[in-house]
Amino acid sequence: MAMASSSLGFLSIPSINIHGSRRTSVRSPLFCTVKANAEAVDVENNELSVSTANAKPWEVLFEKKDAKAGGPYPGGKMGVYTGRDPTKKKAEWLRQRAPQGERYQELKSSLSSLKLHTVCEEAQCPNIGECWNGGGGGAAGGKREGDGIGTATIMLLGDTCTRGCRFCAVKTSRNPAPPDPMEPENTAKAIASWGVGYIVLTSVDRDDIPDGGSGHFARTVSTLKELKPEILVECLTSDFRGDLDAVATVVKSGLDVFAHNIETVKRLQRIVRDPRAGYDQSLLVLKHAKAFKGGMVTKSSIMLGLGESDEEIKQTMHDLRAVGVDILTLGQYLQGNSL
After folding, report:
1. In a 3-state reduction of DSSP, which class is residue 303?
2. What does the buried/exposed string (b/e) look like for 259-277 if buried means 16 or more CB atoms within 10 Å of the residue's CB?
3. List of long-range contacts for 312-315, beta carbons under 8 Å, 24+ apart
4. What does the pLDDT average to over 244-273?
5. How far apart are CA 333 and CA 311, in angstroms?
6. Is the per-residue pLDDT at 274 higher than 70?
7. Helix, strand, coil percentages for the chain (3-state, nearest 5)
């Protein structure tokens, strides 16, 4: 058996030649689909023969473990390697029932009638019922609605984004439909009637609009504050292509929290985010929001599990704190399969 090693961008691809035929195995930090067929498995000798004749090298993800050494696949079992023991039951809090509950249904009907969009729905978030019900069991497995403050994340400027970040489920287009001119007023009236105490306003990226949609954000916030002054409003914005005047427009609208997500560590920006976004540009946006209005609470977020190192996470935290960010959330996208 001869073994060679090749590289494909960030993927490490060991190539194995068995009996003169090329056999390939890939271990990648990204989620892949297995398109290889196992021809023979010899557990005792810890050998796996895989045919990849119809598969691209980076579409194959097999891991073999020594049956006698234990490992994540007890008994020498083989399969798609995720680092999790498939014989152990997942934590109960990972399992969400279909959204339900009176408050959830009210919000859903209201959104539909006013043709409003939420990132909760567009991004297919599994926790939608828990948030809309105020932390209750409507979607978390219980029988009653929550006693806490209900939250929702409204997505302004339509449901179609001009950018294509690899982690996002929102649909994209270079020329999306124009924003609904009545959306700020409709959104504010709907939110004021829901009884929620905290609302997050976010949006798709609209690089096709001169101000990136900042004026649309500002109208929504100011109208909402007029109707319900006590409500807390967070705006999770795009980077507005680095337009600091657009950032200022949102900051002075009366919001309580200015949020912009840096998404991942510096090294992985071009892999994870649309090329028009960037690490330094995001830091600049957050820095300007803090500097423009004294006391403004700023917030950002990064996703974990994309191949970043602990040191890179710490550096990102340091960089965010250096520009005055007050709140940092850490999230993770779960792998969408049975393992």
Report:
1. strand
2. bbbbbbbbbbbeebbbebb
3. 312/265, 312/266, 312/267, 313/265, 315/265, 315/266
4. 95
5. 20
6. yes
7. 30, 20, 50
**DSSP of 38-58:** EEEEETTTTEEEEE-TTS-GG
- pLDDT, tens digit, for every residue of 68-123? 444 444 444 444 445 566 677 777 766 666 666 677 777 777 777 767 777 677 66
3-state secondary structure of 14: strand
User: What is the C-alpha to C-alpha distance for residues 58 and 75, in angstroms, rounded to an integer?
Assistant: 27
- H/E stretch holding 187 reads helix 183-194
* CA 72 – CA 66 distance, rounded (Å): 10
State how far the Cα of 240 lies from the Cα of 285, in Å rounded to an integer.
8
* CA angle, 326 then 333 then 115, to 5°: 80
Question: Distance between CA 304 and CA 308 in Å, rounded?
Answer: 7
SS3 sequence of 21-42: EEEECCECCCCCCCCCEEEEEE
How far apart are alpha carbons 37 and 32 in whole angstroms?
A: 15
Query: Per the structure block, which two tokens stand in for 201?
Result: 């306003």
Strand ranges across the sheet with 11-18: 2-8, 11-18, 21-24
The tens digit of pLDDT for each residue in 301-319 reads 999 988 899 999 999 999 9
Place of tokens 């009996």: 19
Instruction: Judge whether 187 and 116 are in contact, CB under 8 Å.
Output: yes
Q: Determine the distance from the C-alpha atom of residue 28 to the mean position of all C-alpha atoms in its chain, rounded to a whole number.
A: 19
Q: Are 143 and 152 in contact (CB under 8 A)?
A: no
Distance, CA of 58 to CA of 76 (rounded, Å): 24
Contacts of 31 (CB under 8 A, 6+ apart): 335, 336
| Torsion (CA) 274, 276, 278, 284 in degrees, nearest 10 | -140
**Residues in CB range of 176: below 8 A, 6 or more apart:** 158, 160, 161, 162, 204, 206, 208
